[in-house]
Amino acid sequence: MAADLDPDAVLMLRVKRGDRAAFEALVEKYKQPIVNLMGRMLGDPVEAEDLTQGVFVQVFRSAHRYRDSARFSTWLYTIARNLCLNELRRRSRHPAESLDATYPDDASQPLHPIADARELSPPDRLLQQELEQKIQEALEALPPNQRLAVLLCRQEDVSYEEIARILDCSLSATKSLIHRGRETLKQRLKPYLRTGQWQDSRGGQQL
């Protein structure tokens, strides 16, 4: 029954019945996390905004096919994954179109504990921007599925089991993707981080 579902699934069932207010509530909750994910995946904040709109357009258009057999967030991130990987494949066929893309340091959640940019001196702010750029470059060097696994792991409410369903692979393969991605990022970014470690948002683990 709907009462036994997670609150987002209940909202989506209302969307399925034509409830626009329920759809707007889901957009309000998930728009920024999807923008952050798309931004880190694509390295282009403008494209991230456009693709996020596409995600929610597809959510609305596919509402009649929604089934409450899994969490709403799993379904949503699966749609985001498919659109994002399609865009990356398109870019690989037309690389010149994305050569000038830049990623501002404040357009997504940082992947490491740093101070609010407003509290930093101009030299420190410049260093922070440089570090954010290095992080983005390191992320973009990862294979797409590995990059996506690492980024989904940064979402506090997304479990490893849910990531496996989103990526359509086994739990062990998902954990391996995340481990390899973290290790690669640590090695590439060690010269730019004081400790060589990032704090994981779940359980205090180190990246």
Summary tags:
207 residues; mainly alpha; Rna Polymerase Sigma Factor, Chain: A; Arc Repressor Mutant, subunit A; 2 domains; 62% helix; globular; disordered C terminus
What does this structure look like?
The protein has two domains: 1-95 and 104-109, Rna Polymerase Sigma Factor, Chain: A; 117-207, Orthogonal Bundle (Arc Repressor Mutant, subunit A), CATH 1.10.10. The protein has eight helices and no strands. It has helices at residues 7-16, 20-42, 45-61, 72-93, 122-140, 144-153, 160-167, 171-189. The radius of gyration is 18 Å and the shape is globular. It starts with 6 loop residues before the first helix and ends in an 18-residue tail after the last helix. 27% of the residues are buried. The model is unreliable at 98-116 and 196-207 (pLDDT under 50).
Counting DSSP E segments of at least 2 residues, the number of strands comes to 0
Roughly how much helix do the residues carry, as a percent range? 55-70%
Determine the CATH superfamily of the largest domain. RNA polymerase sigma factor, region 2, helix turn helix motif
Dominant shape: globular
Biggest beta-sheet profile: none
CATH class of the largest domain: Mainly Alpha
How far do the termini sit from each other?
Answer: 39 Å
Give the number of domains.
2
The ordered string of helix (H) and strand (E) elements is: HHHHHHHH
Query: Helix count, per DSSP?
Result: 8
Low-confidence stretches: 98-116, 196-207
Radius of gyration: 18 Å
CATH architecture grouping of the largest domain? Orthogonal Bundle
What is the name of the CATH topology of the largest domain?
Answer: Rna Polymerase Sigma Factor, Chain: A
| SSE-based structural type | mainly alpha
What's the pLDDT, averaged over the residues? 81
Q: Report the portion of residues in β strands.
A: under 5%
